[in-house]
From TrEMBL, chain B:
Name of the molecule in the record: YCII-related domain-containing protein
Protein family membership: Belongs to the YciI family.
Gene3D superfamilies: Dimeric alpha+beta barrel (3.30.70.1060)
Organism whose genome encodes this protein: Streptomyces actuosus
YCII-related domain mapped to chain residues: 17-107
Length: 386, 135
């Protein structure tokens, strides 16, 4: 069964129900029920008209739930009067769904969960597995998110920036499960790019494509992290790189630079270099200067310092690093790298070990510990050893 | 989105403010304490932040490999072990600040005299997956 097809239909089925007058929360539940039923029934009995099937089943689920709700309400003494269905939304419905699910009143984790379910068409169980929490917890997170946005009118224009942040989170948090969240984020960003003409949406899509293209090269056969400079570039996906570069160039041509376009430009320069040595670090530093101007983010300044170390030598990189808060994530790791390049393996080994203790994930910790061990072995056995 | 472990210690944590051993409490105080813990977990389930919670028996066994073909060696429990974990709760929250807030609430569980224990809890972040975009 084509699960991607099923997931792709979700937002339009949901908007059909909303257009027929169902409120968002109830419609979303009904579509989720229909989805779960489709996953059960379709493999043995695929429908001729998948969308028609989903609309029919979802609408029936909605009516069933509404009837049992109504029966419950009749048992109560004074039922509150339900508001009538609002006017049919005139603007693009899928876009409105993105806005609603990434509404600024939601916490990031709630917005991510709701987006994956209502726009992405994933089941609660799949989302729970992807984020390693119990299904009941994820179900609560989603229903709470729906309560939070229950007062938001479906036809209100939303904020593209919050939608992009949610999609970026889905892409960048490398959790794993049956669902490939990175691929899912790309699918949802493609769809968003089709629904709205916005250079930053294209910038984010380009950024995702360019990083996704390098995915196979990021891990060695044993699962260990391989740093960019040591990656086997023949394992990069050239078709994805070409697409990412094309999407980015079209976005940049609009002359409305934003942080995602600038980040994608850095990624494009890496993807474009046939070897690590041929990387255009001078241009990368220039893009980081743009990013500092756009975001003033300390993490960007840290990345800039590393790029300066490549463009102008490790001393220049260390000087740039010295101006930054040493408690920044990866500050110690960057210092270790630059000290080794500067010909000081003893300091580098000490800093790599310290960076390993501060790492926030196991893959980086393993990588940094290995770096420290490599330098310590060299220091013990003299410069001739590997 | 980050997972944290809230560790509760039998021994090894700094002394609580309301530091009266549980066997000196009244039965009602014990019930109130247990109810508080259950309600705390239930509330976290409702907010979609609960992952897991377990209590551990105070006494355990030390085990180690003893060579090919031999059964593992066991030892203990050691009465002098300084650090003794009583139980844990795993939460999945949006921020470190939220984790602190929840740990603070859990530490306010009522003890002797119905007053908050002000117990020290250990908050440990989980190792996450590495992010995709780092350059």
């Amino acid at each position: 069964m084509d699960e991607a097809l099923l997931r792709g239909l979700t937002p339009s089925v949901l908007t059909v129900l909303v257009r027929r007058g169902a409120d968002f929360a109830a419609a979303e539940d009904a579509v989720q029920d229909a989805l779960v039923e489709a996953l059960r029934v379709w493999p043995a009995d695929p429908p001729h008209d998948p969308k028609g099937w989903l609309v029919t089943v979802a609408w029936r689920k909605f009516l069933d739930a509404t009837r049992s709700d109504a029966a419950r309400r009749r048992r109560e003494e004074r039922a509150e009067e339900e508001p009538g269905p609002g006017p049919a939304p005139a603007v693009d419905d899928t876009l409105q769904l993105y806005f609603l699910c990434a509404h600024p009143s939601l916490t990031p984790s709630s917005a991510v969960a709701l987006t994956l379910r209502a726009v992405g068409g994933l089941t609660t169980r799949q989302i729970a597995q992807a984020y390693l929490v119990p299904e009941a917890t994820m179900a609560q997170r989603i229903s709470r998110a729906k309560r939070t946005v229950s007062g938001v009118r479906f036809d209100q224009p939303g904020d593209v920036a919050t939608v992009l942040r949610v999609l970026y989170l889905v892409f960048n948090e490398g959790y794993s499960g049956d669902v490939d969240l990175a691929a899912e984020a790309i699918r949802l960003t493609r769809r968003l790019a089709a629904a709205i003409d916005h250079p930053e949406v294209r910038g984010l899509l380009a950024l995702m494509l360019l990083h996704h293209a390098r995915r196979d090269g990021r891990r060695g056969p044993d699962g260990a992290l391989v740093p960019l400079a040591e990656q086997d570039r023949s394992r990069w996906d050239t078709a994805l790189i070409a697409e990412g570069v094309a999407v980015l160039q079209a976005a940049l041509a609009r002359d409305r630079l934003g942080e995602y376009q600038a980040q994608a430009a850095v990624a494009a320069l890496h993807a474009d270099a046939p070897t690590a040595e041929e990387t255009d670090w001078v241009q990368i530093v220039e893009w980081y200067d743009e990013l500092v101007r756009l975001t003033d983010s300390p993490v960007v300044r840290l990345n800039r310092a590393v790029a300066v170390g490549e463009a102008d030598g490790p001393r220049a990189g260390l000087a740039a690093l010295a101006a930054l808060d040493p408690s920044l994530p990866r500050h110690t790791a960057a210092a270790a790298y630059l000290h080794e390049r500067d010909g000081d393996p003893a300091t580098a080994a000490r800093l790599y070990a310290e960076a390993a203790r501060k790492a926030s994930n196991l893959a980086e910790q393993d990588y940094l510990t290995r770096q420290a061990a490599r330098l310590n072995a060299r220091l013990r056995h003299g410069p001739g050893s590997p | 989105m980050a997972k944290y472990l809230l560790l509760k210690h039998y021994r090894g944590a700094p002394a609580a403010v309301n530091d009266v051993p549980m066997d000196q409490w009244t039965p009602e105080e014990i019930s109130a304490h247990i109810r508080y813990m259950q309600e705390f977990a239930a509330r976290l389930e409702k907010t979609g932040e609960f992952v897991d919670g377990q209590a551990l028996a105070p006494e355990g066994t030390w085990v180690r490999y003893d060579g090919e073909g031999r059964p593992p060696v066991t030892d203990g429990p050691f009465a002098e072990t300084k650090d003794l974990i009583a139980g844990w709760m795993v939460i999945d929250v949006d921020s470190y600040d939220r984790a602190l807030e929840l740990a603070g609430e859990l530490s306010a569980a009522p003890g002797a005299g119905g007053k908050p224990i002000h117990e020290w809890l250990e908050l440990r972040p989980f190792m996450a997956e590495p992010p995709t975009i780092t350059d």
